[in-house]
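Limitations
The structure tokens in this dataset are predictions for the assembled complex, not deposited experimental models. Users should treat interface geometry with appropriate caution, especially where small molecules or nucleic acid strands are included. An illustrative entry is reproduced here so readers can see what is and is not provided.
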Amino acid sequence: MKILIADDDALMLQMLEHTLRRHGHEVVTATNGRLALEHLHNDPCQLVISDWEMPEMNGPELVKAIRSNTTGASYVYLILLTSRDGTNHVIEGLTAGADDFVTKPFNPTELAMRVRVAERILALESRDLIIFGMAKLAESRDPDTGTHLERVRNYSRVLARHLSGIPKYSDQVDANFVRMIYLTSPLHDIGKVAVPDCVLLKPSGLSDAEFSIMKEHTTMGAATLEAALAEYPEASFLLMAKEIALTHHERFDGSGYPHKLRGEQIPLCGRIVALADVYDALTSKRVYKGSFSHAVARSIITEGRGGHFDPDVVDAFVRCESQFVDIQRRFIEPVAQAA
Amino acid sequence: MASIESATEPSGKGSVSPIDMPSLRARCLDDMKFVEKVLTMFRKDGPAALTKAEVALTAGELPKVVTAAHTLKGMAANVSAEMLSKEAGELETASKSALASDAKVALTRAKAEMERCLAYMLTIEQRSR
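Predicted assembly:
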């Protein structure tokens, strides 16, 4: 990654640059805080390592200046490099907005590790932005959905959390699973981007041919995420996102689509989002139907226990139904303004 | 180059090398060319920082002594000249506390330690010829 280092000591700059380049990073340098700020303005980068004591603009002043700049598109991770120690200085640096500290003379291995931490944190930001952006893209193609994505991710999290407490799922559903399903479930309909408006926005019932096209949103979404996964195999969130996109219309009895998977052939994340998505569709107004009450939706879902839905997921839903009602109230559809 | 690679032991009997070469090598990720480059920079910039501190101390400008001593402290630490870094740190502290007489003592010690460092680097250079 590209790293900007700011230090007035030429020797220190050389040693930092040498270490960082040897670890595969691109390095740009500045000899004081003001020059670093100018550089950042002209050529943004997401990681800055700055000395504390510098002429013209010192490290904490540089950190404050970067943090007060609201025009930057991305978060800038800031490491202060200092020979100072003691709680007061740490507090001063953190108050200014620094993320981390490295003490001089720096240990090359420690510096490399701290840069790795910075990369991980910045990657989390990138991941969340990608997911959010892709989900919003899908949502923009389907004006009826409104706060649908927010509700589905919250319903999915409630179900996953409940299943994590059941011994049968304790190996599979851990805190990471719960976090991942919350993050990735908004991508379940990403494939709708590829469905033509005449089908996607049709207010009345779909013909068989149109329904066939509509069903392709599962495979189209999965193919898109699979392509991203092939490029970034370490991005594990894409795997769950792909499974959800592909399988959230499968049914437990094998009557769903696109592959008529049955029972545990359907990944657990797909079985969870299937229920969350249907519950939300039932309790929300759509172009082709009004909204059902929670009681009606509950009845339809429990009737689908073992048919449409995984019995364990339905049981989790029944146990957590008050949370579903709360979420539905919290993320209510905005009322359309009269013209 | 060979001399730097072999300069891993204390320079004299019973004395500790003014520059900890194994530590410097590790800090340079065993890149011996870079070790040479760093020492060349230090030989130019280190004495210059010390001279700045001395001139400022003679003029009674203690804030300038603090700045120069701080720079020298960091520079010396970077090349693993630990004793010189410590002496420069004492010069910085004494100057910050406006203790001019203590600063003079610290400066004398720092100069002596700088001489040791320069002599050590010269020895290494001569060995490589």
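Some entries come with short summary sentences. For this one: Chain B touches chain A at residues 26-29, 31, 34, 37-38, 41-42, 45, 67, 70-71, 73-75, 77-80, 85 (CB under 8 Å).
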